[in-house]
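Tutorial handout. Part one gives the primary structure; part two gives the three-dimensional structure as tokens.
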Amino acid sequence: MADTKREIERKYEATDDTRLPDLTRAAGVDRSVHRGLTELDAVYHDTADLRLAADALTLRRRTGGADEGWHLKFPVATGIRDELHEPLADTLPRSLAALLRSRVRHAELAPVVRLRSARDVHHLTAADGTLLAEVSVDRVRAERLAGEGSGTTAAWTEIEVELADDGDPAVLDAVEKRLRKAGIRPAGSSSKLARALAETTPVRDGKKQGRTAPHTAGDHVLAYVRKQIRTIVDLDPAVRRDLPDSVHRMRVATRRLRSAFKTHRKLLDRAATDPLGAELKWLAAELGLDRDQEVLDERLGARVEALPATLALGPVRGRLRAWSAARRTGSRRRIIDVLDGKRYLDLLDALEALSADPPLRPAARRAPGKALPRAVLKDYERLARRMEHALEHPPGPERDTAMHEARKAAKRARYAGESARPALGKPAKRFAKRVKAVQTVLGDHQDSVVAREALRTLAIQSHAAGETAFTWGLLYAREEAAAEARERELPEVWARASDPVLRTDLKH
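Part two.
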């Protein structure tokens, strides 16, 4: 995997005659050390329709400087990017190509802009010599290599202040204060590439075309659908990089999207959405192989850690680690294989096609205040039937199964409320919040069911190995008690979610 660095920087406008003020007067800065001039030559790559630039990603091959090579940058927040680096090579390294696959897919990456920069570098250090930040004055020459404006050039000067690794962001504030006092203002572009593209793209008459604000019920549903598609595509690189919670968030997006297709089947043609829903179900299941085990590990691990030492008999922690490792072996490799597979890429293509040419039914032209409440309330009615079925069963396996089915219905009703919130406002927000509380109770109950199955397996393995199964039995009993507590809590939580006022508000 490529080397990764969190880049925190700020850019400022400058001219050829701009001079840096005395930055040793910035709070915390003791010295400014001139590091000399470096010549940098970077070629930025993108698709013909500039998909990477549209998402504020930059891919470049740069020579010159201490870190020459291939660089791929992902935006994290304003002024913050994750930079992945691979050594210099003639072709794009496979590790970086994989991180771009969800966006690029079948398109080709090619040079689009060349930037040659003369970089004058200064290091700001603390009194003990610790590097605080690097300040560069960059004189940039840009050349458009492809697309609109091919052959066009631009030139400018900018100041870049980059925080040192593990540095205090307060240093950037202190430096900015000195720069502003000297009349130097923040740059209008987030990156050199963004500025180069803006300055080398021909200006056309007329206003830019873009999506208008949602007006019909179909507009609102499509905005929600497109948001989930965008989330899946955006999270693909994060899953490949094994970033925290990325698998879970991607799985949630697939579920939200599949749920939207079901909830709004009066607005979207099922002939188009049902096959996609089936593929999204497959993808969620593949992502869940790792996530479900992670949730179970956290639950059982917390239960074990909470035990007094006198009740943790035998090699409990060691057996739990071994059992977990055996179940997780190969799960991450499987996820990567799924993301690299043709089936997944075909799904992304199909979702992109649906977004570009949505299969709207005539009902999609209705006002959102009419069509969306009906869809949300239909999902509520489905949940109500399943809740009634769950609550009429006595405690036992049948109730466990019924509560699990109710949980899935609660999740869909919650997503329906959330999808309608931009159009319906606070009533949809309140509805989704109440249903989420039901989902939480049902979810914790189901987690207990799964945990008890795992604890029984661990007890059997311990007994077979000649170990005492006492601790596993104790934890099993505690999980039973936790499930019973959730069952007692459920009627009250459901009563709040089934308040008729909530449903009346949705209609108005």
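Part three, for discussion. The mean pLDDT is 94. The longest strand covers residues 31-46.
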